[in-house]
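> call design_seq(struct)
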């Protein structure tokens, strides 16, 4: 079955040990919310990495807003990226990053021409209305994530940032 949303995600407020590095706390962004809310243990781990990593010069949580259009509901939406950070690179320069944290199950797999490869419907003796609705809902999550991230990639290119989706695999939480 498709993992969509677990009801037991860890949520809370993150308190940085280095608030001078944090855009939410250091006052460098006008109208930035002071609170750093993590909505999963993955986000908490990444916030902690940004806070403690020496090469991260500055970082923020939910401070960049990007407009996008969704074909799922044919409406405009705003997408707020999970993180932004600036880090020193190996050449002594600075790289700017927009980061989205997501479970790998919610990251669409694309084919060679960039189309989403949707999972097949469950193969049961009897496919129910509920199983079809769950499948459709899961496919819509994949579509929406793809739309948001394509808009984020465009925004990032225009503004000199890199865009990356980080999953439990990149966070080192998957063994094997």
């Amino acid at each position: 079955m498709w993992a969509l949303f677990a009801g037991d995600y860890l949520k809370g407020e993150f308190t940085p040990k280095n608030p001078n590095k944090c855009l939410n706390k250091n006052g460098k962004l006008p109208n930035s919310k002071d609170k750093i809310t993590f909505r999963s243990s993955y986000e908490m781990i990444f916030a902690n990495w940004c806070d403690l990593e020496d090469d991260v010069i500055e970082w923020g949580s939910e401070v960049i807003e990007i407009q996008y259009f969704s074909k799922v509901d044919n409406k405009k939406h705003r997408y707020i990226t999970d993180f932004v950070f600036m880090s020193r690179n190996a050449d002594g320069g600075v790289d700017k990053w927009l980061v989205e944290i997501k479970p790998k199950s919610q990251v669409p797999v694309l084919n060679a021409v960039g189309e989403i490869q949707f999972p097949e419907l469950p193969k049961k003796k009897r496919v129910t209305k509920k199983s079809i609705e769950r499948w459709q809902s899961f496919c819509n999550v994949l579509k929406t994530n793809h739309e948001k991230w394509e808009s984020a990639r465009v925004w990032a290119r225009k503004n000199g940032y890199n865009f990356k989706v980080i999953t439990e695999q990149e966070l080192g939480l998957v063994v094997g």
